[in-house]
Amino acid sequence: MKIRYINILIAGALLLTAVSCKKALDESNVNPNASETAQTDYLLTAAIKATSDTYWGTTNNLGSSLLFVQHWAKIQYTDPDRYIFTNASFQELWSIDYAKGIINLNQIIKQADAASTPNYKGVALVLRSWLFTQLTDVYGDIPYSQAGNIDQYLLPKYDNQRDVYLGILTDLKTAQDALDPNGKAIAGDILYGNSIALWKKFANSLRLRIALRIADREPELARQTIAAIQTEGGSYISANSETAQLNYKASPNQNPISNLFDTRPDEYRVSKTIIDQLTALNDPRLAVYAQKSVATQLYVGAPNGLSANLPGKDQVSKIGSYFIAPTAPAVIISYAEVLFDRAEAAARGFTGEDPAALYNQAVEASLLQYGISTSDIAAYKATPAVQYDAANFKKSIGNQKWIALFGQGLEAFTEWRRLDYPVLAPAVAGALNRQIPVRFIYPGTEQSLNPDGYKAAVTHQGADALTTKLWFDVN
Length: 475
Description:
About 50% of the residues are buried. The model is unreliable at about 1-30 (pLDDT under 50). The chain is an all-alpha fold and about 475 residues long. It has helices at about 1-20, 40-55, 60-70, 90-115, 120-140, 160-180, 195-215, 220-230, 255-265, 270-280, 285-290, 320-325, 335-345, 355-370, 375-380, 395-405, 410-420, 445-450, 450-460, and strands at about 70-75, 245, 270, 330-335. It is about 50% helix and about 5% strand. It is built from 19 helices and 4 strands. It has one domain (about 40-255, about 325-460): Serine Threonine Protein Phosphatase 5, Tetratricopeptide repeat (Alpha Horseshoe), CATH 1.25.40. α3 (about 60-70) runs parallel beside α17 (about 410-420), α7 (about 195-215) packs antiparallel against α8 and α7 (about 195-215) packs across α13 (about 335-345). The strands form 2 sheets. The chain has a two-stranded antiparallel ribbon with strand order 1-3. Strands 2-4 form a two-stranded antiparallel ribbon. The longest helix has 25 residues, at about 90-115. The protein is globular, with a radius of gyration of 23 Å.
């Protein structure tokens, strides 16, 4: 976000020094035949594409969170897998979400209010809520209430994580009220094909997700949020076909993971942790998540965080071809995740639903998401280690959700911290004294460009370190 501010200031200074005539700057170089304001549908398309690429791409997914939760491992340049980062390592999520995401979405909201097109406003609020959730999930305290309004707040204050989550819930309720399937149509929606009915389900599914984020700290507020959705008669994502995901196309609009593997095919492999777990459960998703090693024709995972004696690239399993295909989707929130969330809400006593039934539906939905046969699904669900344990819902849900979220690094990282399952061992040669990171560190640019906000966040939250627990992470 601050990089954008500096670029704007530098560009302005250069223009001022270059103008030698007395004509006002705002009257110079204006095309009288061009619009001064980007079209709302174009802004929406751009915001979805840029933020999905960032969410699913290298810095925040492959190069950090997928390593932390031990879905993937590195067999080249292993510093990130050993938790060795600098204060420039986590800049992309911050800069893209704020500069290309939240600023564009704020503009859509302004244009929607001016043009009386509430469906655009509702969609923008849902997307903005998703971005703020990503940011606070990994950094903790962040600019929220003053974010993205550079005309008013060049150096926005940091809000504490509790207030951010509660603000997001308010925004999602506002979005839900604004979205009207019978209202003015929208365009530019490359996520749901302009279906407002599906955006309403997406909004409620995010409300459920955030309610569980705060459940260990604010159980009554979590219960009230879920009860409000039920009272409103709202529904959640209710089929795999309704999963919120960006479906990529062939090059040059391919999945960013596919783009990386085109040039760097041998940097990542599947983690030994998840391959061992899938093998122990005889999980049919193993053949989707991983490829057999070239050398042994067996599924062999790479240990996370090796500094020496790295396995040869042919000795360990490559990432499954499904995930490195150009058209592989960037999943934002799946039907399976929503079912797991509903199961947890029921297990916590927030609803009267049957947690075991919802858990079983969630496991099945995840398997169906990858085309697993009904006979294999039945056999898998009958496995004793897979069956729901009412005495420890966090273990059952946490373990299966971790498997279901394979590839969704940021979400898997947050849910692992929140549910404390599965139990993971730190990287073999990890640099954090036998600890696994529990947050991202702030971009170094924040220390120089917004020092007061940064210092206030550190004072409130704790050291700007990978091992500082965030507010939602109570155990």
